[in-house]
Amino acid sequence: MATPQPIQLQPGQQPTPQQIQAIQQQIAAEAAKQGLTVQQYIEQMKAQAARQQAMMQQQRQQQGQGGPQQQGPQQQQGQGGPPQQRQMQQQPLQPGPPKPEALAVANFLKNQPLKTRTCLFQEKRKDMFKVKRAIRALQSPAYAKARKKNPLLPEVNDRPSAENTFKLLPLSLLALRVSKIDPHEGHDHGKKKRVKGLWNVKIEQQQDADDMSHYVWLYEGSQWRQYLMAAGALVAIMAVVMFPLWPYYLRLGAWYISVGCLGILGAFFGLAIVRLILFIITMFAAPPGFWLFPNLFEDVGFFDSFKPTWAWQETAEDKQRIKAQKKAKREERKARREGRAPNNGDAKAGQEAKEETNVGKAVEGEARASGAEVEKGGQSQARNMNARVEEVEDE
């Protein structure tokens, strides 16, 4: 009797019914050769694979630590193992169709407020989020309520079960852990201007579930919205092409709408010219200058472009004061995370910056009430205080 040839499958390929039957016949033949039942042969193969995996993990651990380190089994059980050993216990990522449970978890997290930010991954814009917000969403009452409606969602009772549920995403290649990189590092050309808040990221080898780790979404979710948008765009293009065939009242309405849009555009340009003229006049009459709608051309929302209504031009001292405040807040948050007292110099600089801000606001209010002369005096006083903040920061 000829020995059946082994079935070759590509990673992620689903076997056909004929291939499944051939595999079953091959397993039965191998079990009969060794005088075992099919169930006993399968258990033997599982035990052999587990031993090989344990040996490979031990070799990797020894290579990572620079040599074997002996440690008692009771001590390892008490400590839960070193971090490198816990990382070695992660399952390898194999391409293939995602599991239904992973898709259910991804669809749930996609609809949660994870405070995603845009990043550049392989020259494409992707959404990135922190692990701590995903874990928090999996432990929220909303997840328990969603699990009652969708039985595919795994049960989450504590932090370890939440991490295991989250790890279904990288195992199915729905989301992967990334880190920030500099795309121009090592190049001879000058440093190009980077878009503020837009990270360039790369995939990390270890797919951990630390709170501060960042993951990028590879799962796009349901595509029915994209299909509807594509169909709507096609209908709009056909409607514009067939404009001569429109009824008279539709063409008249389109004309009124176009005139209204042109009027709004003209008003916007007129407002930009008026605010520029007003700034030039006040720059000489009441330095440092007055801006109407200072956020009109900033990268904010439509309504936020008109907030606040007016503001004074920021001077170098104002920018330095704001920078000192931000630095003091960063140091305070960092010290709070590390569980130590904040730096006295940074805290003092931040406190003086806050006091200086209050004094500057009071001086500006008095200047507006008393006239341009008091305005100049208040600004010179604020500038002197700003210089004092610089000295504290340099120390």
TrEMBL record:
Where does this polypeptide localize? Answer: Endoplasmic reticulum membrane
Q: Chief location of this protein?
A: endoplasmic reticulum
Q: Does the keyword Magnesium apply?
A: no
What transmembrane ranges does the database entry give?
227-249, 255-281
Q: Which GO terms describe its biological process?
A: post-translational protein targeting to membrane, translocation
Cellular component terms, GO, for this chain's entry?
Answer: endoplasmic reticulum membrane
Q: How does it sit in the membrane?
A: Multi-pass membrane protein
The annotated regions of Basic and acidic residues compositional bias extend over 329-340, 349-367
- Residue ranges annotated as compositionally biased, kind Low complexity, are 48-63, 70-93
The segments labelled Disordered in the record are: 1-21, 46-101, 317-395
Q: Which UniProt keywords apply?
A: Endoplasmic reticulum, Membrane, Protein transport, Translocation, Transmembrane, Transmembrane helix, Transport
InterPro entries assigned: Sec62, Sec62_asco
Family named by the database record: Belongs to the SEC62 family.
What is this protein called in UniProt?
A: Translocation protein SEC62
